Structure formats: C-alpha cells, structure tokens
Amino acid sequence: MCYNVVMNDLSANLNTLRKKYREIFQKSAEEISKRIEELRPAGFEGDFLDDCKEWHNAVLKMFDEDIARDIYIKWQEILAYRKMFHCKRCATCCNLACSEFSPEQLKSKAQNGDNFATQFLSVFVPYESKEDARKIYPEYIKMLEENKEDEVYFYHCPKLSDCKLCTDYENRPQICRDFPDNPLSILPESCGYYEWKQEVEPVALLCHSMMEIIEFYKEKICTSSQD
Ligand code: SF4
Ligand code: SF4
Q1: Considering only CA atoms, which residue is closest to atom 1 of ligand 1?
Q2: Which of 208, 194, 196 is closest to 24 using CA atoms?
Q3: What pTM, to 2 d.p., does this model score?
Q4: What is d(CA 175, CA 158) in angstroms, rounded to the nearest whole number?
C-alpha cells in the first residue's frame, strides 16, 4: 500500500479543539458546582472550602460513586465503539511516534520498571534529526513547533518495509494493536480511526474536563483538611 498522508491544518484544528474544550470545561464546572451546592449540609452557611467534613465527605462520595463511575462507563463505550473502525495501514504511526522523553530518559524509565517505556523502546528507534521526521508528517511537526514549549523526540519503527508495510504484522506488539487508544490523540486524516476520533471527541472532552475538575476539588479538600 502506498504511503499517503492527507494533509490538514493541524494548528487550526488544535485551536478549534481548545475553544471547544474551554466551552465544555465551563459547562462541566458549572454542573459540578451545582451538584456540590445540592449537597450542602442543612444549616451550614460557609464556603465549600471552609473545613466542613460532612460536606467534603458527601462531595467525595458523589465524585467517586457518581461522576467517576459515569466517566468510566462513557470511556468504556468510547473504546467499544472504536472496534467498529479499522487500521488502514497508512503507516503514519509506525513512521512517526513522538515522546516528551529522550531515548536516554526512556531507557532509564524502562530500567525502573515503566512498562510503557519498555514496550515503546522494544518497537521504536529515534530519528537522527527532526528534519528526517519532518519529511514524514510536516504539518504535525509544524504544529508542535508552534504550540509545544517542551522538547519533543521523534521515533520510527525499523520493522516498516520500504513500501510502508509492517514486516511482522501478525506479531506486532500490544502498543501497535492498541493505537490509538485515546480519541484525544492527534491523528492524520489518513488514519482509519480518524472518523472515530471525530465522533467521540465531544464525549472524550467532557470526560477529560470532569476528571480535571474533580481532581481540582479533591486537591482543595485535601489542602483545606491539612490547614
Ligand atoms: S511493529 Fe509493525 S505495526 Fe508496530 S510500529 Fe512497527 S511496523 Fe508498525
Ligand atoms: S493506526 Fe491509523 S495511523 Fe496507524 S497505521 Fe493504522 S490507519 Fe495509519
């Protein structure tokens, strides 16, 4: 199969995604704040972050038993729906994997028992230079340069043949089989899961915003109980 990436303006897509996320986050924050208020103990007139154990405990219970459960169910539905889509073997993810970690950092993580780092290093080798990686997916590198402040390292898989086919497809490791396991990953339009990502992205963003907000409140509760 010929390798062909349909180019898209990723920076514009990313900005749209950020805008969508801000709107969803705002709605989630309002919804959670309303639910917290509904649990206010009778007669208590203070602020939520005042030390009110009864209120905090009720909210933590609601987070764990209602919201976290809902997020889990929604995420399982997203992953189940992924099975309706299939890899088109465009080879982009084999040819360009990126990580915030350098090869040395990944090695050290693997030596310390990090399973993902071990799997990643068993598949990918680093590109000699960013320019080599740029030839594979120039829009993606451009978008990272425009938006990412931290260093990003680029890798590729040596098992990919010159005609962009996996030479060991039947035995490909689990991380290859699972990719993409998150609809919030950036995917090329050539990816067979691109449509899945587009369809489930609003729900995934909602789940992400809910998780961020409950983590924020949990931290505040924890800090206020230590004061
Ligand atoms: S093992 Fe095969 S499927 Fe996995 S990254 Fe390499 S070429 Fe791609
Ligand atoms: S998972 Fe997507 S990006 Fe990776 S080879 Fe398959 S179709 Fe291409």
Answers
A1: 172
A2: 208
A3: 0.83
A4: 15
